[in-house]
Design a protein that fits this description.
Length: 117
């Protein structure tokens, strides 16, 4: 009975921070606290004293929405769009080498004509 009471008393909070005003937020850790105010104080005490921080977010985990398995299926690619990823351009290095070699061969051939002075 006592463990059940502790579970309902404490809430899980996720802590995010950013080092500078222009840097993105990064997840740091999660903590247990009875409410938002205590969670913020705990986050400041445990995190801000260790490194410089420009801002902190403390978010109750129950307010974070995740994708359901049905929704995750929608993220799968329907068609092949490898050309949008950088790995789709791997063949260009080989083509560029072939092009450069062709150019060098043409230059060499033109140089065989020599100057007729």
């Amino acid at each position: 009975m006592r463990n059940e009471k502790k579970k309902s008393f404490y809430q899980e909070f996720e802590v995010f921070s950013k080092r500078t005003a222009t840097s993105p937020f990064q997840h740091q850790f999660c903590l247990l606290a009875p409410n938002e105010e205590v969670a913020m104080v705990m986050a400041q005490e445990n995190f801000m004293r260790r490194e410089p921080v420009a801002d902190i977010w403390v978010v109750n985990r129950k307010h974070i929405r995740t994708l359901h398995p049905e929704e995750k299926r929608m993220l799968a690619r329907i068609d092949n769009k490898d050309y949008r990823t950088t790995k789709g351009y791997g063949y260009l290095r080989k083509k560029w080498r072939q092009y450069e070699q062709k150019m060098l061969d043409e230059k060499e051939i033109l140089s065989w004509g020599g100057d007729k002075k």
